[in-house]
Amino acid sequence: MKLCDHKSVGMLVWKKDKLLLIERKRPPFGFAPPAGHVDKDVSFEESAERELKEEVGLDAKTSRLLIEGRKENPCRRDGGTWHYWKIYQVGAIGEIIRSEDETKQANFYTKNDLFALATKTESYLRGDIKQNDWEKSPGLEPVWHEWLKELKII
């Protein structure tokens, strides 16, 4: 089992007014923009480029830091209870080729879709949705619910 490095990146990729989200195949379950740990990369920016390519097959053309900070959020790695995040807006090129290993799906979602996923996440966080039901049909990954609210996207 890998140790958590407590450093994560997330990439917001827009196509007109739709945001690219993946549905995670492994914990933490939920819909989220492409994201991942910094690990061995020299910088957060390099990690952002690597994760975007790994998860959805896109190449980062441009990137701009939008927000950063620490969030309490679990991951499947040992000790992974919190992460220091840097979230980038990324201009990407290429065709989406999702990671079969890491994702169930990858698509662009409208603001209405995002609000519907956010509503489901709020129900889950209140305890109205059981864990096994959440894993079958999740909303936004809870940490991304927080980030998208802070960024005033939802």
Write the layout of secondary structure elements.
Layout: E1 7-12, E2 14-15, E3 18-24, E4 31-32, E5 35-37, H1 44-56, E6 59-72, E7 82-93, E8 103-109, H2 111-126, H3 131-136, H4 142-150
Parallel strand pairs: 1-7
Antiparallel strand pairs: 1-5, 2-3, 3-4, 3-8, 6-7
Can you offer a commentary on this structure?
- The chain has a domain at 7-110: Alpha-Beta Complex (Nucleoside Triphosphate Pyrophosphohydrolase).
- It is built from 4 helices and 8 strands; from the N terminus they run βββββαβββααα.
- The chain has helices spanning 44-56, 111-126, 131-136, 142-150, and strands spanning 7-12, 14-15, 18-24, 31-32, 35-37, 59-72, 82-93, 103-109.
- The longest helix is centred in the last third of the chain and has 16 residues, at 111-126.
Summarize the structure.
The chain is α+β, with helices and mostly antiparallel strands. Helices cover 29% and strands 34% of the residues.
Treating each run of at least 4 consecutive H or I residues as one helix, how many helices? 4
The description of the largest β-sheet is: 4 strands, mixed
Q: List segments where confidence is low: pLDDT < 50 over at least 5 consecutive residues.
A: none
Look up the CATH topology of the domain at 7-110. Answer: Nucleoside Triphosphate Pyrophosphohydrolase
CATH class of the domain at 7-110, please? Alpha Beta
State the helical fraction: 25-40%
Q: In angstroms, what separates the terminal alpha carbons?
A: 35 Å
Helix/strand-derived category reads alpha+beta
CATH architectural grouping of the domain at 7-110: Alpha-Beta Complex
Strand order of the largest sheet: 5-1-7-6
Oligomeric state:
single chain
